Amino acid sequence: MSDPARLLELVGKGTATIGEVLAARVAATPDAPFIEHGARRWTYAEGWHESRRFAGFLASQELTGNRVATFLPKCPEAVFAWFGANMSRGAYVALNRAHRGTVLGDLAERSGAGLLVTDQTGWEIIGPLLPASLTRVLFIDSLPDTLPASLQAFTWEAIAASDPEIPLPSLPSDLATLLYTSGTTGRSKAVLLPHNMYCRGAANLAECFGYRSDDRFHDWMPLSHIGGQLHVTMTAVVAGACLVQFPAFSRQSFWDEVRASGSTVFSGFASILSLLLEVPPGPEDRRHKLRVGLIGNMPAETQSAFERRFGVTLLDTYGMSECEPLTLPRAGEMPPGSCGRICPDFDVAILDEADRPLPVGQVGRICVRPRVPYVMMLGYEGDSPATVAAWRNLWFHTSDRGRFDADGYLFFADRMKYSIRRGGENISASEIEQVFLEHPDIVACAAVGIPDKVMGEEVKLVVVRRAGASSDEAELHAYAKTRMASFMLPRYIEIADSLPYTDVGKLKREDLFASVRAAWDARAKRV
Amino acid sequence: MSDPARLLELVGKGTATIGEVLAARVAATPDAPFIEHGARRWTYAEGWHESRRFAGFLASQELTGNRVATFLPKCPEAVFAWFGANMSRGAYVALNRAHRGTVLGDLAERSGAGLLVTDQTGWEIIGPLLPASLTRVLFIDSLPDTLPASLQAFTWEAIAASDPEIPLPSLPSDLATLLYTSGTTGRSKAVLLPHNMYCRGAANLAECFGYRSDDRFHDWMPLSHIGGQLHVTMTAVVAGACLVQFPAFSRQSFWDEVRASGSTVFSGFASILSLLLEVPPGPEDRRHKLRVGLIGNMPAETQSAFERRFGVTLLDTYGMSECEPLTLPRAGEMPPGSCGRICPDFDVAILDEADRPLPVGQVGRICVRPRVPYVMMLGYEGDSPATVAAWRNLWFHTSDRGRFDADGYLFFADRMKYSIRRGGENISASEIEQVFLEHPDIVACAAVGIPDKVMGEEVKLVVVRRAGASSDEAELHAYAKTRMASFMLPRYIEIADSLPYTDVGKLKREDLFASVRAAWDARAKRV
Q1: Domain, as residue range, for A162
Q2: CB contact (8 A) between residue A388 and residue B393
Q3: Which residues in B lie closer than 8 A to residue A373 (C-beta atoms)?
Q4: pTM for the complete prediction?
Q5: Are residues A489 and A427 in the same domain?
Q6: Can you give the pLDDT at residue B130?
Q7: At residue B253, does pLDDT exceed 50?
Q8: Segment B249-258 long-range contacts (CB within 8 Å, at least 24 positions apart)
Q9: Are residues A77 and A134 in the same domain?
Q10: Which chain A positions have a beta carbon within 8 Å of B372's beta carbon?
Q11: Is the pLDDT of residue B183 over 60?
């Protein structure tokens, strides 16, 4: 059962559910290591058992078929909650642990979850923001001293005391997760993803990356990101590999973690390569077992510098929350800067602004159609008009531009929609702006992404203050600090008399980039 | 300019607007006959001029970009209103002249029209049903004696007095028409159709049917039907042929009309073939110039009987309001019962209930993807969730089942959704039921289609009366007569104690067919 494609064939003739893949994996290698987290260890049989107990708990609470949200750092309990929900015909929603304030409350409300899984630290952040409908909370550590009387609170002991549920059958087309992705002009969109996307996607990734059952994943990617869910967790399950979990990426401890865990595989964004390359080279650089890294959208120079120095093969796969992976990169054959040939589960076309196909080599919008059912999103929840718009002419229109070469390799060119990509996180400019607009001194503001060689982009905010208002950049920065995820917090702030608009009243974002050197810099702490 | 494919190439390199096609046609053959209606005649230059005057009238009323609805029998004014609206960046909505009461009021309201074009007879029906927002009405005959004070009423003299407007440029993707199609469970859906669908569709049809500039169309198909708009009117424009308009299909006068008009081409539904075959054969049967008929979904035996007797080639093209034409039939090569090979503008797949492709020869759902942009609907207006559902996995899911043979010919099998198809009209069962449910004596009812060799299907209604209610079948029939289109009116009515439901409360429609012989028959006027 080391061939992931064969595992998928066994469970579902090409389409499958997450429950079926887990059952097949456990039947094949019950005693193989599944998750390691600090000193704690789970084999596949144990992880499966724990997920079924979670499903049993849901059944005892009459939450079968409900959604389960987590607000947690990377930990095994989040994985068991995900799989437990999916095995009881429910869906999973990972709330990004970095979010705060209005945005977090909105995401929690829109999750539609009947149960929240968090810890005491998380509770202090999310507790005051919960929607009234969410009355059941499960703490993975222990209960806080005081809790609202309206709340039904549990600890993980309730899971340990539950009978493992026999997984309920579901369909490859059933909703597995709801994943938030940054919008262009409004709120983050709630992307509805079916079971089969995780099963086929993971089988395709495991096959093209050559993952094996003796692989060990250095696993820090948040479960609120498609990378954490699909590229890492689900792909490891299909391959029968072991997940060694870490709460976050750390430049300081990355290599120590890799060495101590015996990791052979890692994942991340281009920004972590830049951070790791900032450390001066040393004799230890190649003392590790890493052989391959899956890194999204990396500059060719960063890739080759990293590969040369650390002796690790890096591969880029193209995709997004809505459909992933769209390309299957293969070591040793990739033209520099390419993210590979198209995954056979999809058709990809490069279209012009009128949806007409462009000739090979020309840059245009990357558009996608599935060739097999339920390998991409079911739609945006609560926003069918946005789904219809994205699906016009029965193509899913990505927000990216790219081109093919004559050999069928895809090259990403740039991003069309207005979101900011900072260190692997897609940030909606409008979500930043909304938080600042709640400040009494601010009458208008606009956020843009400023190119940055380490983070890819840094956030810059241009604000217009009310007449007579006195808040300066540092005060505005401090105000936002408790109200948004740290990754969204603008590094640069510029106070302006007005924002530039076109004659039809559209914000001219392109005019906001120029003056970054004159802006207040949170790192410099002065103009 | 007799080659329609070349005309389309000339105007738009494969995508075009209705205004561009009209302009190219008029430039090529300004003096060729365009429309004949009774004793009235228009050349292409004259029809173009009249449409531009209509656009000029819209501009003078500040209705540029608005929607124009017509409630008219087949007539040239409806065509000029359509083209005039499209040339001033507005859209056209043809309200089916057969509709009445609640359904008609609902369609008028949903049309979003800023102007209604009708006649005095139509006004008596639709006047009391108009939404408050529709305050401008143009009468093609003359003003009624009394009109509400709130109404701005015009006659065609206002058009004749308008300056011809220079057509405003629009895009192939712009909305050209809103077309109502019968729903499965609810109201008719409002299908949004772009310019390019009419241009490409007409060019494809004109080419495969071999229409020529000396063809004369026997034209009775209502403009509220995609057949009347696309297969007849627009296709004649592309071919440069002449439309000879008749207000409706009549078995009695059809051949007289064909002979007097010198028609070479006709269109219709399978039911008209049956009606024409009912007349006893005679020596006049082949005294006419008809050479080809476009007939939707005809039984192979009816087709061959008609072809043998009248010496006319019949061809079936498969399609629906949402996308049309999906197949391009070619005389002399069609396997019996097939509707032709797939039009190169589309991909068509036969999928199973989980959207997996079925092998050649197997019957499954007919699903469609466009290969060129804007050759099918933009979506259902006001019902994006229905659009997303119909577009799942980026296939447009028709409500039909069919199969391919090994040579790529498509065979229609049957209809999946619950609508009734009577004499070429798709009727929503639920719209019939809604009207009867407004009757005080009725507590429940259900409409089904009963197979009928002439009409394809006849409507049967099963009703459950309130305890103590006394209305009999004839009274219920008379009640409905003024409240719905005559084609929707149930021929059979059966009074029952209850309706059959499944154990989850779903109506078992299949149980309603059996007892047709025991039902009241409007034709027999007795049980």
Answers
A1: 4-32+41-196
A2: no
A3: 351, 354-356, 393
A4: 0.83
A5: yes
A6: 95
A7: yes
A8: B249/B220, B251/B275, B251/B276, B251/B278, B251/B279, B254/B218, B255/B284, B255/B288, B257/B218, B258/B218, B258/B288, B258/B289, B258/B290
A9: yes
A10: 356
A11: no
